[in-house]
Specification:
The chain is an all-alpha fold. It is 70% helix and 0% strand. The chain is built from ten helices and no strands. The chain has helices at residues 2-60, 68-78, 97-108, 112-115, 119-124, 134-142, 146-161, 174-180, 185-188, 195-219. Helix 2 packs across helix 3, helix 3 (97-108) packs parallel to helix 6 (134-142) and helix 7 (146-161) packs antiparallel against helix 8. It is globular and about 65 Å long. Mean pLDDT is 78; it is low at 41-51.
Length: 220
């Protein structure tokens, strides 16, 4: 009986001892991980701020007011950017329409896959074809297969037509510019072709007819 009681006490003491050691070890590991996490967050944030500041400085150098060689050097450096958001029509005091054309040059150098996440920004650029860089963006969109960008295209066309409806589909309107990205290049160089008619025709065939068929299917 005495031996059994002694064994129980020994086992209980051992459990308490190992439990204490385990907890101490756990606290040490948790503290180290916490320090590592804090340092990592600080380093990442610091690096992000540094990249942001560097990008802002390079964006200023894209201005048409800077020497040509400075612009070209800035373009080369900014082509390495993975996040393209800062290049889409910046509107700060120092970086506005004066840098848009060079921003567009950088954007259009990217692959289709790199551009897909930014299609909304690219379509928005076509609201006014007098904006610097708009024609570069327009031509780049034309090279992307329609199926890859159909969702974004349809969304932006819907926004463009919200106020004016189908009456908003005409040459040089935002809706018209969006549709023109999907017209054949041959149409642009043929003086006998009425581009406005082609724009409306494309809309009726590719958007209006699809909507009608969808409505008919739903009724059935």
């Amino acid at each position: 009986m005495g031996i059994e009681l002694y064994k129980e006490q020994f086992e209980e003491t051992s459990k308490t001892f190992y439990k204490k050691e385990y907890l101490e070890h756990y606290e040490k590991v948790r503290f180290k991980l916490s320090c590592f996490f804090c340092y990592t967050c600080y380093y990442v944030k610091k690096r992000q701020n540094m990249i942001k500041k560097m990008s802002e400085e390079l964006l200023k150098q894209l201005s048409w007011n800077t020497p040509k060689e400075v612009q070209e050097e800035a373009i080369k450096k900014l082509e390495k950017l993975k996040n393209l958001t800062p290049l889409f029509q910046p509107t700060t005091k120092e970086c506005n329409k004066n840098v848009w054309e060079n921003c567009a040059k950088i954007i259009i150098s990217k692959t289709d896959e790199e551009l897909i996440p930014y299609m909304d920004n690219m379509f928005e650029w076509l609201q006014d074809m007098n904006w610097p860089g708009s024609w570069e963006i327009f031509e780049r969109i034309k090279k992307i297969p329609f199926k890859k960008i159909e969702k974004s295209f349809t969304k932006n066309l819907k926004i463009a037509l919200q106020e004016l409806g189908e009456e908003g589909i005409y040459l040089n309107s935002w809706a018209g510019n969006l549709i023109m990205t999907h017209l054949s290049k041959e149409l642009f160089h043929n003086p006998k072709i009425d581009l406005e008619e082609e724009i409306i025709k494309w809309y009726k065939v590719n958007i209006q007819n699809k909507q009608s068929r969808r409505c008919n299917n739903e009724k059935q």
